[in-house]
Amino acid sequence: MKTRHIFLTIIAALAMTSCFDSDWDAPDMTNPPYGNNSIAQDEAKLVTIADLKTQYSAAIANSSFQRITDDKQLRCTVIGNDIGGNIYKQIIVQDATGALVVGINGTGLFPFLSVGQQILIDLKDLCIGGYGQQPQLGDEYNGSIGRMSTEKWEEHVKILPTHDQSQIDTLDFDVNMDIDRFCGHLVRLTNVYIGDAGYPIAPEYQAGTPLTYNGSTNGYVHHSINNQSMSKLLLRTSTYADFASWVIPATPVTLYGIATRYRNTWQILIRAEEDIKE
Amino acid sequence: MHNSRIVFFFVAKYHLFVTLPMRKNLLTALALLSLAMQGWAQEPTTSEQEKALKDEANSYIFTESQLDDDADVTQDVIQISSSSNLYTSNVGYLFSPMRFKYRALDQKYNDIYMNGVQVNSAENGRFSYSTIGGMNDATRGIDYASPFESNNFSMAALGGSNNYNFRASNYAAGHKVTLSALNRNYTARVMYTFGTGVKENGWAFFGTVGYRWANMNTAAVEGTFYNSLAYFLSVSKKWGYRHSLNIATWGNPTERAQQGASTDEAYWLANNYLYNPYWGYQNGEKRNSRVVNNYEPSALITWDFDINDDLKLTTSFFGKYAMYSGSRLQYNNSLNPKPDYWKNFPSYNYDVWDLTNVSNNDLAAWQESYDYWTASKANRQIQWDRLYYANQQMNAVGGDAAYFMLKRHNDNLAFNLGSTLNWTIDRENKLQGGIQLATNTGMHYQTLSDMLGADYLHNVNNYAIGTYAGSDPRVQYDLNDPNGVIGKGDRYGYDFNIVVQKATAWAQYVREKGISHSFISAKIGGTQMWRDGKMRNGLFADNSYGKSGTARFLDGGIKIGTNLNLGKGHVVGLGVGYMTYAPTAYSSYGGSAFQAAEMNNNFIDGLKVEQMLSAELGYAFVTSFMRANLTAYFNHGTHMNEWQNYYYDDVNSFTYVSMTGIEKNFYGVELGIRFNVATGLTLDLIGSMADAKYTKNTDVSYLLSTQGTVTTDILYNKGMREASTPLTVGSIGLNYNVSGWYFNLKGNYYDRIYLSYSPSLRYQSTLVRAGAVNNDGSLIVPDQTKGHGGFMLDGSIGHQFRVAHHPLGVNLMLTNILNNRKLVSGGYEQSRSNYTTDQTTGEKTSIRTYNFQKNPMKYYVQGFNFMLNLNYRF
Q1: Residue A136: inside a domain, yes or no?
Q2: What is the pLDDT of residue A5?
Q3: Touching check for A58 and chain B: CB below 8 Å?
Q4: pLDDT > 90? residue B865
Q5: Do A72 and A129 belong to one domain?
Q6: At residue B572, does pLDDT exceed 50?
Q7: What is the spatial distance between Cα B136 and Cα B532, in angstroms, rounded to a whole number?
Q8: A249–B contact, CB cutoff 8 A
Q9: CATH number of the domain bearing residue A180
Q10: DSSP state of B60
């Protein structure tokens, strides 16, 4: 009996031990663990994208840069990121007055800055300038506007509580619309024909194809849209995009994308395969 | 003096285990003594306390520290001992802090038997010692056979054979409680054991239960824990004079968290040689991403039939259902969450080995990263809260989880049957033989174990997206359920069974005549294996779902050995053998008969039966003041196969890599000497100098997980060595017994520790691309990276007290007393390239600032550590 008691007692005691790594509760997200929660939103410091573009128009137009010294803040919404591998080390933000590219020297930004997320950017000490006249926030790089480090970005951004994709203003694209006002904007191109039907949208360079590669033998592939002159409008896709092997149909498609500019050419950037509606 | 010492040893040994009357004890001892003198050397003189300590150390190392089931690095340790060889009987535990591998052999060459049935996994060839951890009192009765030692249960294996005796009648009667405190991978242990001995009615019962524990704050490596319950029950019944039946069952449900290797830069930044990148804070609590859950309930039925006094038949049937899973954090098209990901290091910012072109911006970036790493512990660990935040963002846009936890499952249902006949023909001749049958169904699949707050995940191969559009069927993991939505607990990515069936027959003839003890043994067997896919992979739509073809292999071998007792204490021994081995069917440690079992049904091209020629020459010398063993061995393997999988930068893809036609040599000398310096004082000298290397370059082929294509190449691995074991070891030890106290102090030296070489850095095409070509066109193959060796001082103290008329044993083991932190116990070279590659032309495009080859992943030994054991018998 003694033995049986000892045995049963021990087994009972041991059976009560439970798993250490059981279900974990999701952390509290009141203060998002991304960005700088200590930035206090101050209505007096707020500026719009249009204000910034006006104030720094010279730097933007000359494809140079200028460091922002004023204690200003920008409240805007993320409209584009690297989720599809087509936009690289950038996000695009928009407010009611326009859009901007933000250069950040990091990859895998999309799960932290998803489309529809409202953010507050502390502008002081960042640089603004133009790349092919496309306005861009970032940091100095060899005398022109470049990307800021991820550490610096996280110091200067605050994640706001609002996240709403449906509130993003999507323009129906018109090649003749005001490029200074609308460059960088989220647009929709309804029932358009993409050039080079039958080819993948952005294959690695292969000699003998009619595809237009940007500069070197790889990187970006350009396609016409509705047979417009590619000096006015083109579809620009990275060979590293997740949808690079998507085959262009002969039928019209509806595209969503970022209408960036390179000087006076509209360059449409698709964010992900889901931006193409066949 | 010499004889009396041996008599004392046997008396002491048998007094503990069998409560026989003293007179019978002495007779037994004398009988055994005369037998022992026939051998080619005697059991080294061992005190009871020394034996207890060695047992404890062995049990800890082989069954409790669980060296053998970290999939990240080869840690396959062979438990070997020998009654006749001082080197072999000590080497297993002596050099274990550095994960010494016996003869640098894979553990699959160590055959493990239980009551005569072989229990190595039919699928991967190995036996996991961890599955019998925490039940130390149950696992002490082992017959060992070194590679050329005849024995009555097997044809001795290349890495030795062990036969556990799990019969209830084998255990002493009484109760025993053991309490242990230590600062290793667990902190506390409690065990209770009870045995009845053989009762008059022929019944015997033995049982033991144990629990081992550490939490994230007490375990030696921060962020790990240990939670393991163990039980072992055995019942036997003897009837008549001829029959006995035994049933044993055991298991040790274990949950434990792992440590990962990292680079010297990480250890330096963390200021901690045990820095562990696998954990991080979630809501302020420590959470480890690599948690292993393992439970292998096992049962063994044994029938012993003494047909007559000279003919004995032992038949055992073994079955187990093994449930093993290891978790890992997965990222989906997003940033690698590893805190020690290369892009997170300060040295990512500029080439720290070449300061010629460093700008102030680079230095500032380096400083920024350094400050971040050193500012707080949380910064250099996984940031779980951010992963939940990221998934919340993905939920808001209806996207798939950016981060999630997977469990890789390796479940196995195994049945093994072994039957052995022992025939003592006469005083000089013995014949043994038997059959071993094994079947194993390995169920390998991956489940989503924690969504980390995400709403969605689809069963889609994100690695193939890019090569193929997201709408292409080739990106589907399972075409039978395309775009399947995966929830917690659902299978993801791969799901397949591997079935292996083996049958072996063996025989051994032993002859003892005059001064010689000789044996010849042989075996022959057949193996068949197939895969049964449970998902239809989009890249292999016609070749992944359902059964593959069946591959069949014939293997076997022969061994001959003899020992000659030349008199005056001199014994020489010689053994030669030739063995063949069917390829390993599938192993998460490396080794597979399948090209990429996670993706398709194909066997590896050019798969052959491995061949191994082995030879051993030994010399033993015994006098009153010393005993010595000197052994030289040589093993030559051909047609060997290896298999790995890793990310290969130059093709921008995860790859499944098959290497065939490997040739290797393993050779070395082993020395063990014990001097009897004075009464109770002995001095041990134990050491080995070995080599274990590839003797020719190897054919390699790799399958790209991004597109399913296979590329062949030549792997320049000639001269590469077996990794994560010191190839040179030496030890000086002092043992002192006085008045029931036992002390020892051992100084151990380790050197020539190689890290696991990275094949992809040594492909012919890689070397050409990297420009590692001499003017004469020959290739410059990088040297294999080495770890730092050195000296470690270990010691122990033991005593047996009597408390309330019962023995209380106290043992204290101290390891790395001088706290040498610079010893590398293992690791691996990073397989990534120092340059980027143009995916169209295959040319090198630019040099990376981060130098992977100068940043190998390493494990360092633990500093000073101890284990205190109290055991009380009543």
Answers
A1: yes
A2: 66
A3: no
A4: yes
A5: yes
A6: yes
A7: 38
A8: no
A9: 2.40.50
A10: I
Structural tokens at position A46: 């707020």
Give the other-Cβ count within 10 Å of B376's Cβ: 10
Whether residues A7 and B385 touch (CB distance < 8 A) is answered with: no
Instruction: Look at chain A and report how many structural domains it folds into.
Output: 2
Helix (H, G, I), strand (E, B) or coil at A211: coil
Put simply, whether A7 touches B (Cβ < 8 Å) is yes
User: Which residues have C-beta within 8 Å of that of residue B487, sequence separation ≥ 6?
Assistant: B448, B451, B457
Residue A277 C-alpha, separation from nearest chain B C-alpha, in angstroms: 12
Residue A253 lies in a domain: yes
Burial, A236: exposed, middle or buried (Cβ in 10 Å; 0-12, 13-18, 19+)? buried
- Arithmetic mean of pLDDT, B686-707: 96
Cα–Cα dist B125/B111, whole Å: 9
Which residue among A26, A217, A246 sits closest to B469, beta carbon to beta carbon? A246
Residues A149 and A51 in one domain: yes
By residue range, what is the domain housing residue A94? 43-167
**pLDDT for residue B705 is more than 70:** yes
Q: Give the B window 354-373 contacts with A, CB below 8 Å.
A: 365, 368-369, 372
Contacts of residue B795, Cβ cutoff 8 Å, sequence gap at least 6: B743, B744, B745, B746, B813, B814, B817
Residues of chain B contacting residue A243, judged by C-beta atoms under 8 Å apart = 465, 469-470
Q: Quick: pLDDT tens for B801-820.
A: 999 999 999 999 999 999 99
Contact A234, A268 (CB under 8 A): yes
Q: Is A24 among the domain residues?
A: no
Same domain, A236 and A202: yes
Q: Which residues of A138-176 are buried (b: 16+ CB within 10 A; e: fewer)?
A: bbebeebbbbbbbebbbbbbbbbeebebeeeeeeebeee
Chain A contact present for B846, CB below 8 A = no
Residue A20 sits at the chain B interface (C-beta within 8 Å)? yes
Q: What are phi and psi of A175, to 5 degrees?
A: -60, -20
Q: What is the DSSP letter of B155?
A: P
Report the alpha-carbon distance of residue A127 to residue A269 in Å, rounded.
24
- Closest C-alpha among A52, A89, A86 to residue A255: A86
Q: Which helix (H) or strand (E) segment is A55 a member of?
A: helix A49-55
A-contacting residues of B 5-24, CB under 8 Å?
A: none
State which residue of chain B sits closest to A4, comparing Cα positions: B194
Contacts of B470 in chain A (CB under 8 A): 242-243, 246, 273
Residue A11: its chain B contacts at CB < 8 A? 209, 231
Q: Are residues A93 and A175 in the same domain?
A: no
Task: Tell me the pLDDT band of B367, cut-offs 50, 70 and 90.
Answer: very high
On whether any CB of chain B is under 8 Å from the CB of A219, the answer is: no
Predicted local distance difference test score (pLDDT) of residue B39:
37
Instruction: Determine the distance in angstroms separating the CA of B696 from the nearest CA of chain A, rounded to an integer.
Output: 37
Q: What pTM value is reported for the model?
A: 0.91
Q: What is the DSSP letter of B365?
A: H
Q: Residue A26 domain-assigned? A: no
Cβ atoms < 10 Å from Cβ of A60: 26
Note whether A187 and A137 are same-domain residues.
Answer: no
Mean pLDDT of chain B: 90
What does the alpha-carbon distance between residue A268 and residue A186 come to, in Å, rounded to a whole number?
A: 9
Among A167, A199, A228, the domain boundary falls at A167
Q: What is the pLDDT of residues A107-166, one digit of tens each?
A: 999 999 999 999 999 999 999 999 999 999 999 988 899 999 998 999 999 999 999 999
What number is the average pLDDT over the span B209-226? 93
Q: Report the complex ipTM.
A: 0.94
pLDDT in tens, B386-421: 999 999 999 999 999 999 999 999 999 999 999 999
pLDDT digits 0-9 by tens, B231-242: 999 999 998 889
Phi and psi torsions of B322, nearest 5°: -95, 130
Q: List, for residues B423-437, the tens digit of each pLDDT value.
A: 999 999 999 999 999
Residue B791 amino acid letter: F
